Amino acid sequence: MSPTRHHSLPRRSLLQAGSLLLGGIGLPDLYRLRAASSQQQRDTAVILLWLEGGPSHMETYDMKPDAPVEYRGEFRSIASNVEGLDLCEHLPLQSRLADKFTLIRSVSHAITDHPGGAARFLTGYTPKNISKLTSDYPAFDTVVGKLRGDMTGATVPRFVSNTTYFKGGGPAYLGPTAQPFVFESSPHLPDYRVRDVRVAESVSHRLADRQFLLRELDRMRRALDADANVQAMDEFHERAVDLLRSSATANAFDLTRESDATRARYGHHRMGQSALLARRLVESGCAMVSLDFGRANKAFPTWDDHGDAHHIFKAMRARLPMYDQALSALIHDLYDRGLDRRVLVIATGEFGRTPKVNMGRAARPIAPGRVHWADAMSILVSGGGMPMGQVIGSTNARGEHPVDRPLDPNDFLATVYRFLGIDPSQNLLDQRGRPIPILPHGKPIRELL
Fold first, then answer.
1. Residue 347: CB partners within 8 Å, gap ≥ 6?
2. Which helix (H) or strand (E) is 92 found in, with range?
3. How far apart are CA 58 and CA 64, in angstroms?
4. Would you say residue 3 lies in a domain?
5. What pTM, to 2 d.p., does this model score?
């Protein structure tokens, strides 16, 4: 007997429902985009170290030692192993390997609210509501996770994070299937175990319930006369469940497989062990690792160093040595293991800080601080087979705005997409089925090509 054809929804509606189940992209388009993104860049990966709150460029990568004291702050600049590339004195380990990273000092935008600034930077689109905690457009890490998420032959999840989404980020219309596999954000603790690997809460109950998935997919398959696309979707979800049960997944998350010396080199703190875990994940085949890379010190939990919150220089003295140790160990490891051509490390926040100390919101500061500043920021990139040991762009003598090689966040995102083999002019579908470009504008930064 042939399968029943007495269903209440027309074929087109069911196909649209299938697209929504996949989150803003139909199956044929999903596989086409995945094939295009992996054809030349199949093994590439990105590690995003997200410095939530917006780190001060004046205390890290864009020192202004000749500016007035109320601009330059308390820290000295030190020379690196690249002539003309100076860093903060509290980044001595990075200063010894500056030939293995590049600094971009001339990216700017116009949104100084945390969620809005993050959305602008991570998605390439200007948000309608700058205070909304989730973006209206998919953040680039979720796009990467979606398009590079074909799990054929994969032994670990392709998109992993220590948070479901960054403030101002998220998958937007791509839906919950574009969210990362989330691990417990405490790999530095003695009792950390692989059991802490989990799926984002919004989808975990469904991924864990294989029978639910099979029932729903079987219902759609019967309605579509065993459509091949639905069978492919069935297989896609089967693989997702199998990945969570894979011993290879457990091994990738198992830091006890690293030597004591390696773990010590990264640092026995949240930043250090998270960075080590990121290296293990990309080495095992993960395509995108996004880390909230700031909550390493309880007294100074983010890089949001307002003078009416706490003392920016005390915060930086506590935070920068851990950051320096973790990032330096990660860069060293990737180069030593020959991963520097296929893995790109990015360290950045949503914006910089006011060049003048206690300028802006802190009308009655309790300590020295700097406020949100989107006119200038610094971005560090390492690896990706890109030219390293350079500084791209510059700001004026007081660190207020770019004066040389001004760049848009979209130029940076276009560079990342190019590295991954993703065409940012390709369209994704929103909830109404309307095509929306992955990136509305932007050109790859020529100095990184």
1. 49, 51, 293, 327, 379, 380, 381
2. helix 92-95
3. 7
4. no
5. 0.84
CB proximity list for 30: less than 8 A, separation 6 or greater? 22, 146, 147
Residue pointed to by tokens 């700017």: 108
Question: Residue 126 CA to chain centroid, in angstroms?
Answer: 18
Count the domains in the chain: 1
Residue 24's pLDDT is what? 53
- Ranking 143-147, 287-291, 343-347 by mean pLDDT, the lowest is 143-147
Please give the residue range of the domain that contains residue 384: 17-448
What confidence score (pLDDT) does residue 427 get? 96
Token pair, residue 216, equals 């729903």
Whole-angstrom Cα distance, residue 318 to residue 341? 32
Residue 416 corresponds to which tokens in the numbers above?
Answer: 């990342």
Q: What is the CATH number of the domain that holds 354?
A: 3.40.720.10
Share of the chain above pLDDT 90, in %: 64
Residue 208 has pLDDT above 60, yes or no: no
Task: Looking at 164-311, list the stretches that DSSP marks H as alpha helix, in order from N- to C-terminal side.
Answer: 201-208, 210-223, 228-245, 247-252, 260-266, 270-283
pLDDT at 42: 63
- Is residue 4 in some structural domain? no
